[in-house]
Input
Amino acid sequence: MNSLRLTICCVVAVLGALPHFSFAQLDPSFYDSTCSNVSSIVREVLSNVSQSDPRILASLIRLHFHDCFVQGCDASILLNDTDTIVSEQSAAPNNNSIRGLDVVNQIKTAVENACPGTVSCADILALAAQISSDLASGPVWEVPLGRRDSLTANQTLANQNLPAPTFTIDQLINSFGNQSLNITDLVALSGAHTIGRAQCRFFVDRLYNFSNTGNPDPTLNTTLLQSLQGICPNGGPGTNLTNLDLTTPDTFDSNYYSNLQLQNGLLQSDQELLSANNTDIVAIVNNFIMNQTLFFENFKASMRKMGNIGVLTGSQGEIRSQCNSVNGNSSGLTTTATKESSQDSVVSSM
Ligand code: HEM
Ligand SMILES: *[C@@H]1O[C@H](CO)[C@@H](O)[C@H](O)[C@H]1NC(C)=O
Ligand SMILES: *[C@@H]1O[C@H](CO)[C@@H](O)[C@H](O)[C@H]1NC(C)=O
Ligand SMILES: *[C@@H]1O[C@H](CO)[C@@H](O)[C@H](O)[C@H]1NC(C)=O
Ligand SMILES: *[C@@H]1O[C@H](CO)[C@@H](O)[C@H](O)[C@H]1NC(C)=O
Ligand SMILES: *[C@@H]1O[C@H](CO)[C@@H](O)[C@H](O)[C@H]1NC(C)=O
Ligand SMILES: *[C@@H]1O[C@H](CO)[C@@H](O)[C@H](O)[C@H]1NC(C)=O
Ligand SMILES: *[C@@H]1O[C@H](CO)[C@@H](O)[C@H](O)[C@H]1NC(C)=O
Ligand SMILES: *[C@@H]1O[C@H](CO)[C@@H](O)[C@H](O)[C@H]1NC(C)=O
Ligand SMILES: *[C@@H]1O[C@H](CO)[C@@H](O)[C@H](O)[C@H]1NC(C)=O
Ligand SMILES: *[C@@H]1O[C@H](CO)[C@@H](O)[C@H](O)[C@H]1NC(C)=O
Ligand SMILES: *[C@@H]1O[C@H](CO)[C@@H](O)[C@H](O)[C@H]1NC(C)=O
Ligand SMILES: *[C@@H]1O[C@H](CO)[C@@H](O)[C@H](O)[C@H]1NC(C)=O
Output
């Protein structure tokens, strides 16, 4: 396994040297002389936390995605409410949904202890996503680094740019297209739903009254439908959790795609990849089903592409000393990292 990983890493390193794969001014060796062990610090925290909370790996991959689609990968999602900042954390796709903010603070504290004022929160999110994939037995890639942190957040933009689980294939293509991500990226990145959980409220319309038809979604497997109706009572609070990947919920593999063939995609946006009969997209899904290596190679490339969206570099933005607030902010908020957020303690994995 290790030698396979090593081989994959080397392939990526070689490809990374080609102009076609170069990304803005980011560079995997960015911290080599200033914080050479930043990756191992992130890994140590994550391997520790994931022992008691395996879902955290999924949550951190999602956090990077929700950062990148809003003003670029600039850690804007981490900024709390202040007099001048309306936090993205309470935008509809994030509110009572994103997890891992406390773990990011734990990582930041450990990194600051080793290399003060050096590593951005945006880079921590990108590294945490890659290491989470690795720890979930998913693909491993070199993470281009050198992002800087934003001075602003934009809740309106979070509501606009983050795709909804009720999106049709055309809306999904449009949403990703707006971020310069194509249909290969859409299919590959949707594969992140090979791990993690979703709350009933994000798919309950499929169970009882799909598109106000009065009937369930016809593209939802009837066996899964019955099981989900048990977990998600009609008119309930919608906060119960279920696995995004019905077959291998905590392993990063290509089963997410083969589930779709049995109409076992959980979200409408998942099942759309196959059931909308978009010829080009169906072909990509089928290729990923037949060849997991192909899925992994594409996931790596698409994660690097997503990780390059709208990055701040050079002297833009800043290196925050605490991820939840901009530097020198005099609003009286504490700058100490927190150990737990109430949000994470109430949610349990299945
Ligand atoms: C294609 C459009 C997408 C839609 C509509 C979508 C929607 C969602 C929704 C509704 C949830 C459940 C959240 C909750 O119940 O609180 C979720 C979970 C998740 N999403 Fe997506 N997502 C999309 C793409 C992505 C991408 C591109 C990634 C990362 C590359 C990703 C990674 C995840 C992960 C890992 C989880 C599980 C999080 C956890 O268990 O904490 N998703 N997504
Ligand atoms: C690992 O987690 C435990 C609690 O789950 C904590 O006591 C310990 O300090 C952690 N170690 C590191 C290196 O983060
Ligand atoms: C976020 O959720 C809380 C409930 O936890 C709710 O009170 C609040 O209004 C929500 N925020 C937004 C902007 O919808
Ligand atoms: C990381 O490297 C720094 C020096 O660059 C060192 O002070 C620190 O102890 C190292 N931390 C870990 C966890 O290896
Ligand atoms: C948020 O983004 C929107 C759309 O780009 C823009 O019109 C608005 O001015 C931004 N708001 C803030 C607070 O930056
Ligand atoms: C894509 O961007 C266009 C132009 O800004 C906007 O009108 C449209 O709503 C966006 N689509 C999605 C799904 O975000
Ligand atoms: C999507 O973009 C990548 C490069 O980022 C390219 O290799 C791939 O062929 C594109 N896919 C499609 C369907 O255009
Ligand atoms: C489905 O939703 C529509 C619109 O809200 C409503 O009029 C209809 O009564 C609902 N049907 C059922 C069976 O709940
Ligand atoms: C889901 O939540 C409801 C309350 O809305 C609860 O009665 C039920 O037992 C839960 N089901 C599962 C499978 O957790
Ligand atoms: C529904 O899913 C089950 C396995 O979960 C599978 O055996 C069955 O063939 C699926 N039905 C359809 C119509 O794909
Ligand atoms: C997709 O194709 C299947 C099988 O040919 C068909 O049953 C279904 O109605 C089609 N769906 C759409 C949205 O065209
Ligand atoms: C699977 O995909 C990988 C990566 O693109 C490729 O090298 C390999 O030849 C493919 N395997 C088969 C059996 O097509
Ligand atoms: C940001 O908000 C979280 C709760 O949402 C809290 O735990 C944390 O202490 C806040 N951080 C700062 C710097 O105020």
Notes: Residues 209, 212, 214 surround 2-acetamido-2-deoxy-beta-D-glucopyranose (ligand 8) (CB under 6 Å). The radius of gyration is 20 Å.
